[in-house]
Write a structure and sequence with these properties.
By secondary structure, the chain is an alpha/beta fold. It folds into three domains: 7-44 and 224-292 and 398-447, FAD/NAD(P)-binding domain (3-Layer(bba) Sandwich), CATH 3.50.50.60; 60-64 and 79-101 and 213-219 and 296-396, Polyamine Oxidase, Chain A, domain 2 (Alpha-Beta Complex); 104-205, protoporphyrinogen ix oxidase, domain 3. The chain has twelve helices and 19 strands. It has helices spanning 15-25, 67-74, 111-123, 136-144, 146-161, 186-192, 196-199, 225-237, 279-285, 362-372, 399-412, 431-447; strands at residues 7-11, 30-34, 46-49, 52-55, 81-84, 89-93, 96-98, 216-219, 241-243, 248-254, 257-263, 266-269, 272-275, 297-307, 317-320, 329-332, 344-352, 382-395, 418-420. It has a seven-stranded mixed sheet with strand order 7-6-15-16-17-14-18. A five-stranded parallel sheet has the order 9-2-1-13-19, covered by helices on one side. A three-stranded antiparallel sheet has the order 10-11-12, with no helix packed on it. Helix 1 (15-25) runs parallel beside helix 12 (431-447), helix 4 (136-144) packs antiparallel against helix 5 and helix 9 crosses helix 11 (399-412). The longest helix has 17 residues, at 431-447. It is globular, with a radius of gyration of 23 Å.
Length: 448
């Protein structure tokens, strides 16, 4: 009799889970991909409003550098992608829109404040303790000096997370790519960046001066959700079975392996399990006594606005650091979608405490803030609006939550046939990094 195929179960149909499913399926395994949501892709999706696609935030794709993985992610549909040598990302801070860089420019503070920040940045020694810093403020003061923490990091981190820097994990700034600042002028910057010490804290004034851009990809038609549709086609070709609206009820453990999983009242024996959702959920379902605390999360409110003319900026998207505005980021579809359209649209994102979701007319607030930033002129009319709410849109990284996640992950990694993928593995947040990790995790399971 032929030997039965090994069975792999992947929980979580975000992109890391999809990648792990592909790696397992190409070895001939029977792969079952489960997700509690009604569709795959997580937040890497789009939704349609009268024939126009809005994304769930700002999303572009990057190649991972792993040939067979990139072939799965992008191969066969090359003509359906548009490639950008760099992204025109900007930022709004201190009442000004910087269209040429995503990094804040300290010149926006005025000469006196700029010079005070610069002096402290130049003399800051960086964290030199024998252990990690106790919190974000302690670390950031050691890296940038107290004044930049006062005028930038403290208000921005409170706006984005709802907490003071003393309450946050010491590397929380990296989640928002807040590490470099433009100072002085282009010539002085070139000289300062010759020093590795200053290079990691000082940015070029214009993205054109930076030579290390990685190309980004976006579908030629529709939104980023078209990528997920392409991958669904490939998953079907590999025989991956996808079950949505799945409710996992129990995880069964035998010795140092997971041997069964119960979902929707069905018991499924398995040879490997890839877990791509919250580690705390695994521990609860397996009835393992451990610290199962989940991090608190900010809700994300997404407002789609349609206008009778384009927004007055060349940015593909811009982040709003200015704490006098409530919005977090605006995506400007006109500036990167190649299909001509008379429908001019943007998505404005807000990251707020869950209790605030019902407190505002978000469409009206989004319009007001765009006008206040000078990118929506007084003569431009809003012709349509709608909103989406993501209840757990962004976890808040405190020392407690990061430590709890690390402890949960270490317990799960003791099981020989379980792999952790996605943000729950505690290894990072960048999408291409998470995809490489999912690839390597699945390969390790296959080869063990």
């Amino acid at each position: 009799m032929p030997k039965p195929r090994a069975r792999s179960v992947v929980v979580g149909a975000g992109l890391p889970g999809i990648v792990a499913s592909f790696i397992l399926a190409r070895t001939g395994r029977e792969v079952l991909l489960l997700d509690s949501a009604p569709s795959i892709g997580g937040l890497l999706r789009s939704y349609d409003v009268a024939g126009f696609s809005f994304d769930y935030g700002t999303h572009f794709a990057n190649k991972t550098g792993i040939e067979d993985l990139d072939d799965f992610l992008f191969g066969g549909f090359e003509s359906e992608w548009r490639e950008f040598p760099f992204l025109k990302a900007g930022n709004f801070w201190n009442g000004k829109l910087n269209e040429v860089s995503e990094n804040p420019d300290l010149n926006a503070l005025g000469r006196e404040k700029h010079n005070r920040c610069l002096l402290e940045v130049l003399v800051a020694q960086g964290w030199r303790g024998g252990s990690v810093a106790d919190n974000a403020r302690e670390f950031l003061v050691s890296e940038y000096g107290p004044y930049l923490v006062e005028v930038f990091f403290d208000p921005v981190l409170r706006k984005f997370t709802g907490l003071s820097s003393e309450s946050l994990h010491h590397q929380v700034n990296l989640l928002f790519n807040l590490r470099r600042f433009a100072v002085l002028d282009c010539h002085a910057t070139s000289e300062l960046k010759r020093s590795s010490c200053y290079d990691r804290k000082i940015s070029f004034h214009h993205r054109d001066n930076f030579k290390g851009h990685r190309p980004s990809l976006y579908p030629r038609v529709g939104g980023i959700g078209n990528w997920i549709e392409q991958l669904e086609t490939k998953m079907h070709q590999y025989g991956i079975k996808v079950v949505l609206d799945a409710k996992i009820e129990r995880i069964s453990i035998s010795m140092d392996k997971v041997d069964k999983l119960v979902f929707n009242s069905k018991e499924i024996p398995l040879d490997e399990l890839v877990w791509g959702v919250a580690p705390a959920a695994f521990l609860n379902l397996a009835r393992i006594k451990a610290d199962c605390r989940k991090p608190s999360a900010r809700a994300t409110v997404l407002v789609g606005l349609e206008m009778n003319r384009p927004l007055e900026t060349t940015c593909y998207f811009f982040t709003v650091f200015d704490d006098t505005f409530k919005s977090f980021r605006t995506t400007v579809y006109d500036n990167f979608r190649c299909a001509p359209t008379r429908r001019h649209a943007v998505t404005v994102e807000f990251m707020v405490d869950p209790c605030e979701v019902g407190s505002f007319d978000w469409s009206r607030l989004a319009e007001s803030e765009l006008r206040g930033m000078g990118v929506l002129s007084s003569s431009t009319k809003i012709v349509g609006s709608h909103k989406k709410v993501v209840a757990n849109g962004f976890p808040v990284q405190t020392n407690t939550s990061v430590d709890a996640l690390a402890n949960q992950s270490s317990v799960i990694k003791e099981f020989k046939n379980v792999g952790l993928v996605g943000r729950g593995n505690g290894k990072g947040w960048s999408l291409d990094g998470l995809l490489r990790d999912a690839y390597e995790t699945a390969v390790k399971l296959v080869n063990q």
